[in-house]
């Protein structure tokens, strides 16, 4: 096993271990009103096959993104970046972060920190890790399979989440939507 393969394996282990931890430990509890519409289950149903199929295809079909090994290092970097910054974002939300879409009684719209730039920075960083996976695999088809279905699943979850937030916070959230981007600062 090469050094980059070892580092990649460690990055993927950290990534999936953190997501499993979040799924188990950060569910809404008590008086939080769940409005999830099974989006967490949908995400996992999309994510697991996307990851496994993209890895499988990368070994079977040769469609390199680059002949330069730096593409794989960039992929590893993006996986780590996504995991670490997503952790920081989750910490910044504290008790308001849950893996299911829910509203607590004392819930407020967060508009500072990472949320000043995008409404869903945690999802941005999760998607950054999937982009990193696709780049590490250095295969156009693997990149598409690792990223596009997951991106679409996150868009569906965002649609549900933003509907819930708009219903809860009304004009305040609508104004926040006008002043911020969904996932990519200044662009989208």
Radius of gyration: 17 Å
Q: Which architecture per CATH?
A: Up-down Bundle
Helical fraction equals 55-70%
Morphology call:
elongated
CATH topology: Four Helix Bundle (Hemerythrin (Met), subunit A)
Number of helices: 6
Q: CATH first level: which class?
A: Mainly Alpha
Number of domains: 1
Q: Uncertain segments of ≥5 residues (pLDDT<50)?
A: none
Number of beta-strand segments: 2
Main sheet properties: 2 strands, antiparallel
How far apart, in Å, are the first and last alpha carbons?
39 Å
Which structural class fits the helix and strand makeup?
A: mainly alpha
Strand order of the largest sheet: 1-2
Give a brief outline of the structure.
The protein is built from six helices and two strands, in the order H-E-H-H-E-H-H-H. With 188 residues, the protein is mainly alpha-helical. The longest helix has 30 residues, at 140-169.
Describe this structure in words.
The structure is a single chain. This protein has 188 residues and is an all-alpha fold. The protein has one domain: Four Helix Bundle (Hemerythrin (Met), subunit A) (Up-down Bundle), CATH 1.20.120. The chain has six helices and two strands, in the order αβααβααα. It has a two-stranded antiparallel ribbon. Helix 2 (39-60) packs antiparallel against helix 5 (140-169). It is elongated, with a radius of gyration of 17 Å. The termini are far apart. 28% of the residues are buried. The model has no long low-confidence stretch (mean pLDDT 92).
């Amino acid at each position: 096993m090469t050094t980059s393969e070892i580092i990649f394996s460690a990055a993927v282990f950290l990534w999936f271990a953190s997501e499993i931890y979040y799924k188990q430990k950060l569910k809404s509890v008590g008086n939080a009103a769940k409005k999830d519409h099974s989006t967490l289950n949908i995400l996992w149903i999309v994510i697991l096959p996307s990851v496994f199929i993209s890895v499988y295809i990368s070994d079977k079909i040769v469609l390199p993104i680059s002949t330069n090994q730096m593409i794989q290092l960039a992929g590893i970097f993006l996986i780590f970046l996504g995991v670490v910054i997503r952790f920081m974002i989750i910490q910044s939300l504290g008790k308001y972060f849950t893996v299911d879409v829910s509203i607590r009684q004392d819930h407020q719209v967060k508009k500072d920190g990472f949320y000043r730039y995008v409404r869903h920075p945690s999802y941005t960083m999760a998607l950054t890790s999937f982009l990193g996976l696709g780049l590490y695999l250095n295969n156009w088809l693997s990149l598409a399979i690792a990223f596009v279905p997951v991106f679409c699943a996150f868009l569906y979850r965002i649609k549900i989440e933003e509907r819930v937030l708009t219903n809860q916070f009304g004009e305040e959230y609508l104004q926040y939507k006008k002043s911020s981007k969904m996932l990519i600062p200044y662009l989208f």
